[in-house]
Structure formats: structure tokens, C-alpha cells
Design goal:
The structure holds three protein chains of three kinds. By secondary structure, chain A is mainly alpha-helical. Helices cover 73% and strands 1% of the residues of chain A. Chain A has helices at 2-33, 43-53, 61-79, 96-116, 120-151, 156-164, 171-174, 176-190, 201-204, 214-239, 246-265, 272-297; one strand at 57-58. In chain A, helix 1 (2-33) crosses helix 3 and helix 2 (43-53) packs antiparallel against helix 10. Helices cover 39% and strands 10% of the residues of chain C. Chain C contains seven helices and five strands. The chains are: A mainly alpha, B mainly alpha, C alpha/beta. Chains in contact: A-B, A-C, B-C. Strand 1 (57-58) of chain A pairs parallel with strand 6 of chain B, so a sheet runs across the interface. Bound molecules: iron/sulfur cluster.
Chain lengths: 301, 607, 192
């Protein structure tokens, strides 16, 4: 048990390092896209450690408690994440719903802490974040419903193995419409640009993060990186057939995140009601169509 | 051996004593009530789990009892909620107009509950239901409005009438009033009739779409300590009838082959889904914290209906577990709001703010309750939602799935709103002198917090008990070991999740503590784009919290209310017609109509 | 040959350890400077070019931030009227330590072309301490970036201590601020 927990902590730490490096590399890529030189690839690490070294302010115990709960919840979620189909901390317990709902503890902690700062912008940001969540979760979960219904198992490892079995395709290919919906939902989860409404630095002063500086902000950055790791890994495992070894995982991960980031860097920002309308129009219709086709007609490529 | 009959008689007697005691001293009477309820709870818990209750009847005429796992499960949950709430009585009763009768009616309704869940006779069931409805109807208007009681009563009666007709049809078919024999004897069209009638009764009691209008009115305006009972306990009566109809009757209609589900069940599942979506949307919009929680009860009622209409063991386990989890969570949340209302005199979120600084324990109670309500681990709500999701996914119910997922994510939104607007945010000047709730009120708060966590971390024992109910209903139970739950498509280990969450928080805490200590600043010293703001109210974001989202369905949101207003108008017109015909000043008209109707009835009889 | 005599291990004192950590922290701090742009005057137009493709501030690890809580540098770009000064001080005090101030243009140095205006202060460092001045009216992007590099150098040499100065000489600064702004009696948020 102790060993498993240590492996879990290792995975969470690995996720942090991986996502932070890849986010740094992506900053460079976006820089090149805009004909800039771009920052160093390890700039994200420097940013986080700098924040941790500063002397911050606090608005009372709930402000700190929320941050601890946020980071704790996200670390806990990451500890369940399988990296490849035989490297994971707790075998059989990598149930899909753990990731969706345990991640919510982290989000709730952050929302609580932000509202506890007493800043109206923070509350507005939280409101937008929750509204965005309401928008992207439903189409995404419908697609996942299809996947679980087809595989008959909600454990991520089993879903990976199902896709790797001969005769089966990656779900991105087997369920093309659903895969597209999954990717759009992933953009929403990551807070990438058309759906970045809840951060909106120029509009609501970076939303939930408005009152943070120093170590609290640093911890929220760590939380943000790890949650991005969870979300992208989910996509890789659900739609791209998971990974048999760590290099495959790294490549798929990098491709997915970079693609999301590239799309993000050429987009503007939706208003919050546009986000909701958008997700409840096309992605939802597509997800339902895909589910009906796959479950009731059994047409899976 | 505790006898059900004696417990009921004890409650009636205790009610009378409580009435007299409250007359002299409110505090004393309420303390007596606590002990009376505690006695009932302890004897029920002591003997009921092993099915050792004495069900013989010696004194009461025409009443018979039997013992079922199903009835006991409901009874123990409801009695527990009653017990928790009775701790609040000493601090609230003195405000009410008819405080003497409050404890009496409270104990009488509890007697009705015990009877309703232990009886094996339809007429008894109906009698006890009426007892509950009539006693609680007089409790509700002690809060703010009489209208609340009227609408509660109206819908309850509609449900009761539907049930009564169903009972008569059953009697007609089977010739017996016994619940289990009667329901077993139903078949064909009769079964469908009774099914529909019972479902109407269940919907009315559960406050499900489309019979939900009374729910927010009654919950919102009921006395503060009574709202937890309404939401945590009384609406569960509807679930009980729902179980009878959906599982016991289960009429043999056509099957949806894709989902392997009878059409009747599927229709109920769809209505339950509408209830989830509707309740969620209305809760997001609501400004009164109690009404918000009432709408959330409506949406959770939808989950229970969905669970019971998917006919398999895992869904039933989810449904029964949800009844428990929601009873605990909503009792916790309503009681936290009641404590705030006692301190500040309002439940309107736009008038409140920053209560956490004065009432931290109440805040924690609310936090834990809503985590469970939103179905987030490591609390009880997660287990039940997980089981329900398993069943929904396994059956491939896409449209129900949309509603279930929507309600689950939507619940993050509405439960967060009181948290942000009422407890967090700026500390408003008018509430600077507020104090934390007194110790006696904190006792149930702590117990509920503990149970919410317990149900989320160690569900094994409870699920094993639920398995008994499922087997009793004729289905196979789910596989549960001490720590693990085996779903149809996955294994869950809630204790592991709890442990890992603790480990994660521990790491986060370590990171937090080794770094430099932060400087404490005032709440008002906050980023305002360098503007000087001196009024807390201007920095408190509480009004129209989800305005952009609400705007999207603003126009559609009140058509149900409009429908019922129109219906009430029609009923009133009908009443006017009746009054014109029978009660007009002109006696000969009245006599004419009465004679005409008698002739008409006799004619039907003779021919 | 090694001495057989026992030499006491040199144990680092707490101050020394703190200093070591501080140096480590300084590396991160100087490579990740986040700006809060207080665009008070016309110098601000020079910031977009220094941020975007042409000069690309991000390669130094710098970038704009939304709120004072998150930022490290308070960038005062141009002249400061008295009304803005009050807000500037409020903002400065909200920033988390260590914090640095950069003054752009000649206006914050000595008043520039507004030196005789009744509404504008002449020397910024009378009111809040300044780490780096970038002279010019207006300074071009090269010199602005040069100013940033200077700040990094001085963080490395531990000479960027303005925030400590503000703490140590707080009374003096407060007195100057009061003299310039005068006491205000506040009735509500719209009438100061
Ligand atoms: S230094 Fe020149 S350009 Fe800058 S603010 Fe002053 S007058 Fe404007």
C-alpha cells in the first residue's frame, strides 16, 4: 500500500514536470508562431518557483484552506492516473468517474478560496468557470457514456486495452464525431482560447486568481498544471488508445496538447453565454448522434 | 423487544405531554421532545437492524403491522432526521404563534411515519399518510405564509386521492387490502391503472416534475427547523410509493428492446430526468437559500425516480443509497441555513455575506453537506451517483444520461451559490455582531458532518444492508466487500479515495507550511483597480450570481407556474359554477338540480 | 598531508542559510519578472512594441499581469498627476514583496515637460522608492528593455532593495505623500 501511494505521488510529480515542460515548450511554439523568439522552455518552472519564493498576503483561513484543498484534490486525482496500460498506482481503481468528480474537489477548493478573498471579480470568475464546466461536461460525458457502454468497463486501463485489442480502432477513429466532441470539450476543460472566458485578464482581471500572489498563486499554478495533465491524459487514454509504453504516451500527449494550444492561439474569446450556447448546440447534438449511432445501431468503425 | 404499536402509542402520549410542558416552558417541552424522539430512534436502531421489532397489535383496532427491510430502511432514516432536527426546537419555538402545538404535531407526524412504514395494510397506509399530511400541514404555516400550507396540502391531497383510487382498484381485483398480496394479484390493464395512480401519488409526494410547484413554496416558507424534515424526510414518502409502484407492480407493458426496459418504467425515467433538469435550472436561478435547496430536493427526487425505474440491482442500490445520502446532505444544508437564519433573520442570499467569519462551524457543516449533495468524493452523494451512472450507462439510456449528467454538474453551480454569496465574500457591516450557533444546535451539525463523511468513505456496511432490501424485492443485490463496491462496469474503493485525498491534502499542506508565512490583510484591502471603495456591499457579488446563464432560459422558466395559475383559475370558475347551481339564493334552482342529479344517479342504478 | 587534528565543522548559521536561499530565490525572481503596467502617461505607447514580435519582452521571462498581487514590477510609464499618485501608492502597497519599481521617461525623474504643472508631481522617488529609471521622452523600446536588463543585474547584485527602503523609511515616504496629497476626508466612494 505504501509503495502504491509512493508510486501515485511519483505519477503526480511526473505529471507536474511533464505538463510544465510541455507548457513551456508550447509557449515557445506560440512565440514562433507570432514571429517572436519566445521564452526559455523551462520558463514555467522559473515562474512557479519564483511565486513560491515570494512573500504573499492572505485574506483569512478560508483563503489558505481553499488553496490547500485545491492542490490536495488535484494531486489526489493525479495519483489515480495510469500512464501506460500497465503502469499505474492503484490497479483496477482507475475508474473514469473518479477523475471527473475528484477533480471537482480541487475546483471547489479553488472556487471557495477565491470567493473567500472577498473580491467581486474572483466571484465572477468562479461563476464563469462553473458555467463553462456546465457547458462542456455534458457533451463530453455523453461521449464517454458511449465509450463505456461499448467497452463495458469504466476503468481507464480496460478502455485502453479494449482499443489496443486487435480488430478495434482508437475511439477517435471508431467514433469520429464523438472524438471531435471530446477534443472540443478538452479545449473547454483546459480553458483554451475560445473558452477562456473565466480567466479573461483584461476583462475581469484574471478572474478567480485576482487576489493571489506569492505562494498561493504558485500552488494554484501547480494545481493548474497537474489538472491539465489529468485532462490531456484522459483524452489520450479515452480516444487515442492509451499507450503501451511511456514514449508513446509522451508523443500522444505532446501532440494533443500542442494541437489544442495552436488552435487556441489563433482564436478570440467567447462571451460566457456564447460558450454555453455553443456547447449545447453542435457538440451536444453531435454527441447524441454519435451515441445513438453507436449504441442503438451498433455502427462502430 | 420494542413493539411498533407501543412506540406509536408512546409518541402520541409524549406528544400530549410535550404539549403541556411547552405550555409552561418552551425550552423544557422541546428538551422533552428531543428525548422522546431519541427514545424512539434508539429502540428502532437497537432492534430494527436485526429485524427484531415486535409487530403484534393488541390495543389499536383494525391495524396490523409487519416488518420489512424496505420499511425499516425508510423509517430509520426519517426518524434520524427527526431526531437531528429536534435539537433545533428549543431555539426556534418561542418565535412561533402556536408554539404549544408545535411539539405535539411534530411527534404525531413521527407516529404517522412509523405506522406508514410498518403497516402491511393499504387502508392503514392511507390512514397514516393522512395523519402525516394533516399534522405537517399545521406545522408549515407557523413559518411565514399560509399559502405554503395550502399548496402543500393541495398537492398532497391530489396524491392521496390518486393513491386511494389505486387502492380501491387493487381491492376490487384482489379482494384484500394487504399490500403485498394485493399488488401481487394485479395484472393487465388494472396493473397499468394502479401503476399510473401510484406514480401520480409518488410524484406529488416527491415533488417531481410536473407536480413540483408546492415544493419550493412549502420548503421556503416552512419554519426553519421544519424545512430539513420536509426535504430530508417527508418527500422520501414519495420514494416509498414509487418503489411500490415501479418495482412491486411493474406492469408488463411493451419493452424497449434497445434498453431492455418496460415503457412505463422508461416514461417514469424520462419524467424523473425532466425533474432533474427543471430542478437544477430553477435552483440556479433562485435567490432564497431555502428555496434553492428545495429545488435541489426536486432534482434529487428525479435521481431517485430514475434509479428505481431502471430495473436492476445496481440501480436500486444507487437509489436507496441516494435516499440516505440526500437525507443526510439536505438535512445538513437546511440546518446550516436555519442556523444562519436564526442569527440574521433572513435567508435571502442577496442580503447576506461573510457569515463564515462569525459562524465557521456552520460553514463547515454546509460545506460538507453540499459536497455530498453535488456528488463529489469523499462524501456519500458520490457513491450513490456513481451507482446510478453505472446503471444508466449500462442500459445505454442516452437522454436520461444527458439529464443525469446535467443535474450532476449543475448541482456544482447551485450549491456553490449560497457558499459564495452567503458564507464567503465580504463581511457585511450589519452582521458584524452575529454569533456562532449555540452548543445544542452544533451537536446535530457535528453528527451530520461525520455521517456525511462516513457514508462516503465506508459505504460497505450500509450497502450490505441495502442488499437485503433488494433481495426482498426480488432482484439480486450488488457485490460489496468491506471496502470495495463492484459495479457492472468498474470497481470503486471509496476508502482508498478518502485515503488518497488525505495524502494529497497532506502534501499540499506540507508545501504550504514550509514556505514563507503570508501577511494577513483585511478583506476590504482587495484589488479594485486602485479605486477606493469604502462600502462592503459594493464589493460583494451576490445578486443574480449566474446572470449570464439565467438570461438564456429566463423566458422559459415560469411556464409551469403559469400553467398552474391557469389551472387554479379554471378550478375557481368551476367552483363558481357549482356555487351558482347549488348555493344560489333561489332555493328552487338548488332543489331542482339536486333532484335532477338524484334522478340521474338512480336511473343509472336501475338500468 | 591531512591534519589529524579535529576541526570543528563549519555550521551555517540561520542567517547564512536564509541568505543562500535568498540567492536561489533571486535567480528565479530575476528571470521571471511580471509587470503591472500603470500606464499613466504617454510613455505607455512604447510598451506594445517592446512586448510584441519586434522586441519580444517574453524572451526575458517578462510579461504583463492583471493585478498588483501577482506582479513583481510596478511600471510607472510617464507623468503622474496627484490624483493618480494616490492610486499608485495604493497599488504599490498591495503588491507582494519583493517588489520593484521602474519609472519610464523623464517625467517621473524630474517632471519632464510638465515640470511646472500644478497637477503633476515632479520626482517619483519622493513618494515611492524607484529601482530603475529609463530616461528619454519617450524612451524607445531598446532603452526600455535595457532598463529591464539593468534591473535584473541589480537584483543579481542585491542592489534592488527599494522595497526594503520603503519599509525602513516608511515615515519619511508617508510624510512626503501626505504633504503632496493633503489629508482627504472621505464621505463615500464617489467623493474623496
Ligand atoms: S517622458 Fe515624455 S513621453 Fe513620457 S510621459 Fe513624460 S512627456 Fe510623455
Amino acid at each position: 500500500m505504501i509503495l502504491n501511494i509512493l508510486i501515485g505521488i511519483g505519477i503526480a510529480f511526473f505529471g507536474f514536470v511533464l505538463q510544465t515542460s510541455i507548457a513551456g515548450i508550447n509557449r515557445k511554439i506560440v512565440g514562433r508562431l507570432q514571429k517572436r523568439h519566445g521564452p526559455r522552455w523551462y520558463q514555467e518552472f522559473i515562474d512557479i518557483f519564483k511565486l513560491l519564493s515570494k512573500r504573499s498576503i492572505t485574506h483569512g483561513w478560508i483563503f489558505d484552506f481553499g488553496v490547500i484543498m485545491a492542490l490536495g484534490g488535484i494531486i489526489a486525482t493525479a495519483m489515480f492516473m495510469p500512464l501506460t496500460n500497465n503502469f499505474l498506482a492503484f490497479e483496477n481503481f482507475d475508474n473514469f468517474f473518479i477523475f471527473v468528480y475528484l477533480i471537482a474537489v480541487g475546483m471547489l477548493g479553488m472556487a471557495m478560496s477565491a470567493s473567500g478573498s472577498g473580491n467581486p471579480w474572483a466571484s465572477i470568475g468562479v461563476m464563469r468557470a462553473l458555467t463553462t464546466m456546465l457547458a462542456y461536461e455534458v457533451p463530453f460525458l455523453i461521449v464517454v457514456l458511449t465509450i463505456i457502454n461499448l467497452t463495458g468497463n469504466s476503468s481507464l486501463t480496460e478502455i485502453m486495452l479494449y482499443q489496443q485489442a486487435s480488430g478495434n480502432n482508437w475511439f477517435l477513429i471508431a467514433l469520429p464525431i464523438g472524438g471531435l466532441v471530446g477534443f472540443i470539450a478538452l479545449m473547454g476543460m483546459l480553458g483554451k482560447k475560445p473558452f477562456e472566458t473565466y480567466v479573461a485578464p483584461a476583462e475581469i482581471a484574471s478572474g478567480p486568481m485576482v487576489e493571489y500572489g506569492g505562494k498561493q498563486l504558485g500552488m494554484l499554478f501547480i494545481m493548474n498544471e497537474i489538472s491539465a495533465f489529468i485532462e490531456v491524459s484522459l483524452f489520450v487514454h479515452l480516444f487515442l488508445g492509451g499507450a503501451t509504453n511511456i514514449f508513446e504516451f509522451l508523443i500522444k500527449y505532446f501532440v494533443v496538447y500542442t494541437l489544442a494550444n495552436l488552435i487556441s492561439s489563433v482564436n478570440g474569446r467567447f462571451k460566457i453565454d456564447q460558450v454555453v450556447k455553443f456547447f449545447y448546440k453542435w457538440p451536444l447534438i453531435m454527441a447524441v448522434t454519435q451515441a445513438v449511432i453507436a449504441i442503438y445501431f451498433g455502427w462502430v468503425i | 423487544m420494542a413493539s411498533v404499536e407501543l412506540l406509536i402509542l408512546f409518541l402520541v402520549g409524549a406528544g400530549v405531554i410535550a404539549y403541556i410542558l411547552t405550555r409552561f416552558n418552551t425550552f423544557l417541552g422541546s428538551i422533552f421532545t428531543i428525548f422522546a424522539v431519541m427514545f424512539v430512534f434508539v429502540s428502532l436502531a437497537g432492534y430494527g437492524f436485526g429485524m427484531n421489532m415486535d409487530t403484534t397489535v393488541n390495543i389499536l383496532p383494525g391495524i396490523s403491522f409487519t416488518e420489512t427491510y424496505l420499511g425499516f430502511y425508510f423509517a430509520i432514516i426519517i426518524v434520524f432526521v427527526y431526531l437531528m432536527v429536534s435539537f433545533f426546537h428549543p431555539y426556534y419555538l418561542s418565535e412561533y404563534k402556536y408554539k404549544n402545538s408545535y411539539n405535539l404535531l411534530f411527534l404525531l407526524s413521527l407516529a404517522g411515519i412509523l405506522g406508514a412504514f410498518y403497516t402491511d395494510n393499504f387502508l392503514n397506509l392511507f390512514f397514516f399518510f393522512e395523519l402525516i399530511i394533516w399534522t405537517t400541514m399545521f406545522l408549515i404555516p407557523q413559518g411565514k405564509s399560509k399559502e405554503a400550507a395550502v399548496s402543500y396540502f393541495g398537492f398532497s391531497i391530489a396524491g392521496s386521492v390518486a393513491m386511494l383510487i389505486g387502492i380501491f382498484i387493487t381491492y376490487n381485483v384482489s379482494g384484500t387490502f394487504s399490500i403485498y398480496q394485493g399488488l401481487a394479484a394485479l395484472s393487465g390493464t388494472n396493473a397499468i391503472f394502479v401503476f399510473v395512480l401510484f406514480i401520480i401519488a409518488a410524484f406529488a409526494k416527491l415533488g417531481s416534475f410536473p407536480l413540483h410547484i408546492w415544493l419550493p413554496i412549502a420548503h421556503g416558507n416552512a419554519p426553519h427547523p421544519f424545512s430539513p424534515v420536509l426535504s430530508g424526510a417527508l418527500v422520501k414518502l414519495g420514494a416509498f410509493i414509487g418503489v411500490l409502484a415501479l418495482i412491486r407492480i411493474a406492469p408488463a407493458t411493451g419493452l424497449f428492446t434497445a434498453m431492455d426496459l418496460p415503457i412505463g418504467q422508461y416514461v417514469v425515467a424520462i419524467l424523473g430526468s425532466m425533474s432533474i433538469v427543471f430542478g437544477t435550472l430553477m435552483a440556479i436561478k433562485e435567490d432564497d437559500a431555502k428555496k434553492l435547496l428545495a429545488y435541489s430536493s426536486m432534482s434529487h427526487g428525479g435521481y431517485i425516480l430514475v434509479a428505481f425505474s431502471i430495473l436492476n440491482g445496481i440501480a436500486f442500490a444507487g437509489g436507496f443509497y441516494h435516499i440516505l445520502a440526500h437525507a443526510l446532505a439536505s438535512a445538513g444544508a437546511f440546518m446550516a441555513i436555519a442556523a444562519v437564519a436564526r442569527a440574521t433573520g433572513t435567508t435571502k442570499m442577496k442580503e447576506l455575506g461573510g457569515m463564515i467569519h462569525k459562524m465557521p462551524i456552520t460553514y463547515l457543516a454546509y460545506l460538507i453537506a453540499i459536497i455530498s449533495m453535488a456528488g463529489i468524493p469523499p462524501m456519500g452523494g458520490f457513491i450513490s451517483k456513481w451507482l446510478i451512472f453505472q446503471a444508466v450507462i449500462d442500459k445505454g439510456m442516452i437522454f436520461v444520461g444527458i439529464a443525469v449528467f446535467f443535474g450532476s454538474v449543475g448541482s456544482f453551480l447551485y450549491v456553490f451559490r449560497p457558499l459564495a454569496a452567503l458564507f464567503l465574500g465580504q463581511e457585511l457591516t450589519e452582521y458584524k455582531k452575529v454569533k456562532e450557533a449555540p452548543l445544542l444546535m452544533l451537536i446535530p451539525t457535528f453528527i451530520l458532518m461525520g455521517l456525511n463523511v462516513y457514508t462516503g468513505v465506508f459505504p460497505g456496511g450500509i450497502l450490505k444492508f441495502i442488499n437485503n432490501i433488494i433481495v426482498e424485492l426480488g432482484y439480486t443485490g450488488i457485490e460489496v466487500s468491506t471496502y470495495e463496491i463492484n459495479g457492472t462496469n468498474g470497481i470503486l474503493n471509496p476508502a482508498l479515495i478518502g485515503l488518497i485525498f488525505a495524502v494529497g491534502s497532506g502534501i499540499a499542506f506540507l508545501i504550504f507550511i514550509v514556505l514563507k508565512k503570508s501577511r494577513k490583510v483585511e478583506l476590504m484591502d482587495t484589488y479594485t483597480a486602485a479605486n477606493f471603495v469604502h462600502d462592503e456591499h459594493l464589493l460583494h457579488y451576490a445578486v443574480d450570481f449566474y446572470a449570464p446563464l439565467e438570461r438564456l432560459y429566463e423566458k422559459q422558466s415560469n411556464w409551469m407556474t403559469k400553467f398552474y395559475t391557469a389551472l387554479a383559475e379554471k378550478v375557481r370558475e368551476l367552483g363558481k359554477l357549482g356555487k351558482y347551481l347549488f348555493m344560489s339564493k333561489n332555493i328552487s334552482t338548488t332543489v331542482f338540480w339536486i333532484v335532477a342529479i338524484i334522478i340521474f344517479l338512480l336511473w343509472g342504478e336501475v338500468l | 598531508m591531512l591534519s589529524t587534528k579535529y576541526t570543528e565543522k563549519t555550521k551555517l548559521t540561520k542567517d547564512e542559510i536564509d541568505r543562500k536561499w535568498w540567492e536561489v530565490g533571486d535567480y528565479f525572481r530575476r528571470n521571471s519578472l511580471w509587470l503591472l503596467m500603470y500606464c499613466t502617461g504617454c510613455c505607455a505607447v512604447e510598451l506594445p512594441p517592446s512586448m510584441t514580435s519586434a522586441y519580444d519582452m517574453e524572451r526575458l521571462g517578462m510579461g504583463p499581469m492583471a493585478t498588483p498581487r501577482q506582479a513583481d514590477i510596478l511600471l510607472v510609464s510617464g507623468y503622474l498627476s496627484l490624483k493618480t499618485l494616490r492610486r499608485l501608492i495604493y497599488t504599490y502597497e498591495q503588491m507582494s514583496e519583493p517588489k520593484y519599481v521602474i519609472g519610464l521617461g523623464s517625467c517621473p525623474i524630474n517632471g519632464g515637460i510638465y515640470h511646472d504643472s500644478h497637477a503633476v508631481i515632479n520626482q517619483l522617488d519622493q513618494y515611492i522608492p524607484v529601482d530603475v529609471y529609463v530616461a528619454g521622452c519617450m524612451p524607445n523600446p531598446e532603452s526600455i528593455l535595457n532598463g529591464f536588463v539593468d534591473l535584473m543585474e541589480s537584483i543579481k547584485n542585491k542592489t534592488a532593495n527599494s522595497w526594503k527602503k520603503y519599509r525602513d523609511n516608511n515615515e519619511w515616504y508617508k510624510q512626503n505623500q501626505k504633504d503632496a496629497l493633503g489629508e482627504v476626508i472621505i464621505h463615500d466612494e464617489f467623493h474623496e
